[in-house]
Design goal:
Order of helices and strands: HHEEEEHEEEEEHEEEEE
Structural class: alpha+beta
Helix content: 10-25%
Oligomer: single chain
Distance between the termini: 71 Å
Strand content: 35-45%
Largest sheet: 11 strands, antiparallel
Length: 272
């Protein structure tokens, strides 16, 4: 054969390779057909589905990623949190924006020896974002969280899991331990402040709220910076409500929600 040219494949090798591709293609086609039969399976798909009217109620899972306290060796890096809901291979995913974690002082770095660090020894990563998922009855009630370093795909450097528990009306707040991956799987690399809630929301109301909040589609979920889904009523323009001088555009009436999770006095917020 000419120099530099690869040897020809044996006929049996060609058949095996062709068979493997055919099986893979058939498996993909079967999964796609199953998804088409089930209809929209993610929140972005459900919100964009024209055959589902605005009054239809959607059950939404909100995962509020607040602040992480991390071991000193994770300082000086850009990190993001990958949130997964659903079984492996079919889960909906949502990545927070990347945040820069400041480098620790030299004394704090020397003090950490693999145990769960105290607050004084940690570096902070303030995510302050919420991932919204469409709830599925057949999915396992577990949220998987992966702390990933920027620029290395989805390879995680720390992970945690938390269950979703009823009732829907409450907000479950957790202080989760973040465990290392790979050879460092037994090591605690920090903690994560996260809350989870489930709400039934009308499709049209949710779309308008997310529009006012500047939410964005993020893979199979919606990513936004607001901290809590609160009970309230969207008031359409021109209905005659006395909302004060200068009020215009879509207005969200309800209870004000503080950063700490408490409710303030009721009022109305005008979309910017």
């Amino acid at each position: 054969r000419p120099p530099g040219r690869s040897p020809p494949m044996e006929p049996v090798t060609v058949l095996l390779a062709t068979g493997a591709v055919a099986v893979y293609a058939a498996h993909r086609a079967e999964k796609m057909s199953d998804r088409l039969r089930r209809g929209p399976t993610t929140l972005p798909d459900m919100l964009s589905e024209k055959y589902i009217d605005d009054d239809s109620m959607l059950v939404v899972i909100a995962v509020h990623i607040r602040r992480a306290q991390l071991a000193p060796q994770l300082g000086g890096k850009k990190l993001r949190m990958c949130v997964k809901y659903g079984p492996a291979g079919e889960s909906s995913k949502c990545d927070t924006d990347e945040v820069y974690v400041p480098a620790p002082s030299k004394s704090a770095a020397r003090a950490f020896v693999g145990r769960k660090p105290s607050t004084a020894e940690t570096v902070a990563a303030d995510f302050s974002q919420t991932c919204l998922f469409l709830a599925h009855r057949q999915h396992e009630s577990i949220i998987r969280l992966r702390l990933c370093q920027a620029g290395v795909g989805r390879r995680a450097c720390a992970k945690a899991e938390v269950g979703i528990t009823p009732p829907w009306s409450k907000i479950d707040r957790h202080d989760l331990s973040l465990f290392g991956t790979g050879d460092g799987g037994a090591k605690v690399l920090g903690s994560l402040d996260v809350s989870i809630e489930m709400r039934a929301v009308a499709k049209g109301n949710l779309q308008r709220c997310l529009g006012m909040l500047g939410a964005e589609e993020n893979e199979g979920a919606i990513l936004t910076n607001f901290t809590e889904i609160s009970h309230g009523t969207l008031v359409e323009p021109g209905l005659g409500e006395d909302l004060g001088a200068g009020a215009g555009g879509d207005v969200l009436q309800g209870c004000a929600v503080t950063q700490a999770g408490g409710r303030g006095a009721g009022g109305a917020a005008r979309a910017a």
